[in-house]
Amino acid sequence: MKKLFIVLGIVVVFLSGIALFKNLIIKSVVTRAVYGITGAPVHIDRFKLNILSSTIDISGFKMYNPSGFPEGTLVFCPKIKIIYDWDSLFKQKRHFLLVEIELKEMGLTKNKKGNLNVDSLKIVEEPKSFPPTPIQIDLLTLNIGKIVYKDYTVGANPSVRVYDVNRQKSYKGIPTTQQLALLVLAEPMKAAAIKNAKIYGVAMLAGVAVLPVAVVATFIGKDYVQQVIDVRFENLYEISHEVIKHMGTITKDDAMGGVIKANINGTMVALILRKDADNKTEITISARKYMFPKLDIAGGVLYQILDKL
After folding, report:
1. Of 98, 91, 92, which Cα lies nearest the Cα of 57?
2. CB 41 within 8 A of CB 63
3. Cα dist from 264 to 139, 167, 268, 301, whole Å
4. Is the C or the N end of the chain the one with fewer CB within 10 Å?
5. Which has more pLDDT, 43 or 291?
6. What is the pLDDT of residue 29?
């Protein structure tokens, strides 16, 4: 009997060791993958893959500031829970039934050069260098806590602003890891009405902005975005006017003609609305600064208008 207990003890220790080793390996793979996409250091306190319940539990996820910024945490998620489809783990396209992310705090930092830490991530600076990695997320729930915004352009000691967002948002049908990353990074900023970040335009081009609404977007030319939206002309004009008014200074306001022109941080933005035959509205937004196209600004304006629909 004593030998039996010894053998059972050895088996339990052995299996526990395998489980621990498995989780450590996957944890290392995940941190390297996130670093590869963002270029920012990542730390995870605890990673647990439960095969029996088809769940993944991540505790203490932290992404730190990229190079060129003071030390600090960019994203802190104390809890991330994932329910996955077991069969998809052996396929190229992973299928996640549910992803729940608790984003307790986002630390935005503007360095002395005026650059935002989130705009200096690889996925934002070099979006074309990351071919889409297919996944399938049926439902994403994002719980947003607060944003701490530090601005070092004002002097040696930064100005600090805190935005208590305290909002939950849900999305369906996320098809790539890039869209997931951009959404998690951009949504807290958009919810806090932080203006003119480059990430808005990149997220728009990646298709993140259209996830909550059923619209079809086409991007034409190098300085403007265009989209047909199932919203009445008058309603869309009011929403567009309100968004642009908060982003910059309106220089032309033509409600009858559906034209709004504005100066947004030195970028000249023009918005034009046109009715189509199906009572939908075509919206075109162009942006230029010193005669150079600023597609990221145009996309950012459209991104925030879509969120108000």
Report:
1. 98
2. yes
3. 35, 27, 7, 10
4. N
5. 43
6. 59
**Shortest CA distance to 225 belongs to which of 209, 213, 214, 238?**
209
What is the domain partition of the chain in residue ranges? 37-196, 217-307
pLDDT above 70 coverage of the chain, percent:
82
User: In the predicted model, what is the mean pLDDT of residues 163-189?
Assistant: 85
Whether the per-residue pLDDT at 306 is higher than 60: the answer is yes
Cα 231 to Cα 241: distance, rounded to the nearest angstrom: 15
Instruction: Report the distance separating Cα 71 and Cα 9, nearest Å.
Output: 45
Domain 217-307 has CATH 3.30.530.50: yes
CA 4 to each of CA 7, 150, 199: distance values in angstroms, whole numbers, following the listed order:
5, 62, 61
Which neighbouring-strand residues pair with 146? 105, 164
Distance CA 88, CA 60 (A): 26
Report the pLDDT value the prediction gives residue 107, as an integer from 0 to 100. Answer: 92
- As to burial, measured by CB atoms within 10 angstroms (0-12 exposed, 13-18 middle, 19+ buried), residue 168 is exposed
Each residue's pLDDT tens digit, 264-284: 888 899 999 998 877 889 999
> What is the C-alpha separation between 245 and 126, in angstroms, rounded?
30
- Direct distance between the N- and C-terminal alpha carbons of the chain, in angstroms, rounded to an integer: 71
Q: Which residues lie below 8 Å from residue 304, measured CB to CB, with a gap of 6+?
A: 190, 200, 243, 247
For residue range 233-256, what is the model confidence (pLDDT) as tens digits? 999 999 999 999 988 899 999 999
Supply the pTM of this predicted model: 0.61
